[in-house]
Known about the structure:
By secondary structure, the protein is mainly α. It has helices spanning about 5-25, 40-50, 70-80, 85-110, 115-130, 135-140, 145-170, 180-195, 200-215, 220-245, 255-260, 265-270, 305-320, 325-340, 360-390, 395-415, 420-440, 445-454; strands at about 55, 60-65, 280-285, 290.
Amino acid sequence: MLLRSERLLLLITAVVLVEKLLLASVLITPGRDVSELGFGFGGYVEGLLTQGQFAADDGDLCLRSSRMPGLPATVALLAQVSRDWITVALLKNALWSAGFAALAIYFARSVGDAGGRIRAVISVSMMVFSLSPALVKHAAMITYEEGFITELLILYAIAFLMTARAASSRSNPGRLGVAPALVALLGVCLFMFKESMLPVFLAGVASVLVLVVRHGASRGALVALAVAGSLTGGWAVRNHVVSGRFTPMTSYSGANFFRGANTAGLELYPDVSLDRLWAGEQIVRRDGAIVDLPPLPTEVDFADEFAFSDHFRELGVAWIRAHPGLAWAFFRKKAANFFLSTEMTPYRIGLEPAANEGWTRRAYRHGVALWLVFGRILQVVFGCVLAHAIARRLRGRAATLVAALALIACYATPSLIGFNYERHVSLYLLILVVSLAMVAFGRADQREAASAAA
């Protein structure tokens, strides 16, 4: 028998699902095959489907470790039903929403009396989700990682805040249910889809370990930690076997770092996608300035893909050392885009003039701008709530907010070191929504505030 709050959660999740299905149907070009997925994923999907191996081989170049396995493996599994891009996207969205709802209800029920609070936080977060064109669009896609991690991040953030707060408490943390286990399992899932989620994953593992040391933990949490460690270590071993490098990271990590540490990138960012650095062509920015892109070597110019990664990492480090002023200017640009911008970035993805975009694209930009304005207001609210909690010595509320700050810092760090666009910012704002909802519906916080007022 479902509770009223559970039915509400299911209703909101269903609304989001309908939005995702509509967007996927409209935005994805009909008749395309999943092997055509961009950002280097299509080749891996094709390798899994035709050769049964995780490799992108186009004849001239064979990549085995340039992408994390989550997205290609999931798409390849769903492509057993159909290789049609739209069909796979619709199927993914339906399964993801169903899985999200089931896990959310199970999670809330596992924490006993606090279940109502968890359901309220999830419902509010999903309501905001449904009103954000950016979040719905990203969650609907299968072309990039945010299409798979956005909804997972809601449950991860809630479980992390509960676990981190309990780990920092000297008293009995109370019933946490499956929260510690979810932190470990969802954390490794996030990482297996997107390598920049590694700090978020490690922060979760650290919170569970501290909880185990200080308060003990259930067998489920320990098993989850073992599973997370096995998956991460197993992927590192696999990379060593096929590519000669013992690392859980991809062979694109050096190039991603270089994107945020070079002069041409500084001139392009955030107007034009930094993927265009390898275009070797002349690009005109929005302000009319012309940027000449020097030719850059690609993977085929190196002995192996990790040599490619090492080369561009070294170039980026050398540039920072040689041009500290420019590096600081680039960092300020990235920080401004992450914490201040109210514009969808990048303004251009390809070489085509952005002025040629249709009315739907312009309407979407305006919708995203409104979402970002709302997010910047949330930042101010978050700061005020944190300052109030510290000033009034509301330890429980402050602990939740400090844990949220730690999670935000872990999420933001790769984006500030490498690069970030609106899709990265939108997920950060989603973490803010979850964090503020956790405070707003915190029973212990409310009792603490009433006691302080008395």
